[in-house]
Give the backbone structure.
Amino acid sequence: MSTPALENLVARLNRLPGIGIKTAQRLAYHILSLPEEEVAGLASAMTEAKQRIRYCPVCGNFTEDELCSVCADLKRDRSVVCVVKDARDVSYMERMREYRGLYHVLGGTLSPMDGIGPDDIRIKELMDRVKTGEIGEVILATNPDVEGEATAAYIAKQLKPLGVRTTRIAHGIPIGGNLEYVDEITLFKAIENRRDV
C-alpha cells in the first residue's frame, strides 16, 4: 500500500546520487516515523544550505563568506594549487591534514561524449591564476578515470608553455591491498608510478 505523497517522497529521494529505490523507500519510511519538528528541521537545513552556500570566486570551493576558508587562510602556501573536479573533493583532500596549499575546483571534467569541453569547466580561470606568476606548482588531482585522465592531460598541455611545475597525484595499489584483487589498470599505474626506495 502506498500513497501519492509517499511515492513522491520516494521518487525524490531516489534521484539523489547513490540512492537506489530500496534505500529511498527505507529513508522515506524513516522520515515518516520522525517527529514533525525533526522533519521540519531537516527540510529547513536543506533549504538554508541551498540558499546560503555558494562557490568561492577564487577557487570554486563551497563557502558562505566572501572567500572560502582555504583561500582566506593566509598561512596556506600560495605557490601550490591542487586541481580537483568538484568542491566536495576539497573536503576529501583536507581530511588528510597534510596538504597546505590552495585549490582550484574545475566543476567537472572533460567529456566529449556528454558535450563537456574546456569552455564548460573552470580551466580558463586556472590559467588566469597561473599567469599571475604567484603559482609555482599545479597538482592535478582529478579522478583516475577516463574523463579525469583526459582532463589532467589537457591541463598539463595547457600549462607546459607557462613554465609552471605540473604534477599528477600517484595512483596504484592501496595500503593493505592484495595483488590478487587488483585490476590490470590499477596495477599498471602502480608500476608506472613506482619510485626509488
The chain has a mean pLDDT of 92. The radius of gyration is 21 Å. The helical segments are 4-14, 21-33, 36-52, 69-72, 87-95, 123-131, 146-159, 184-192.
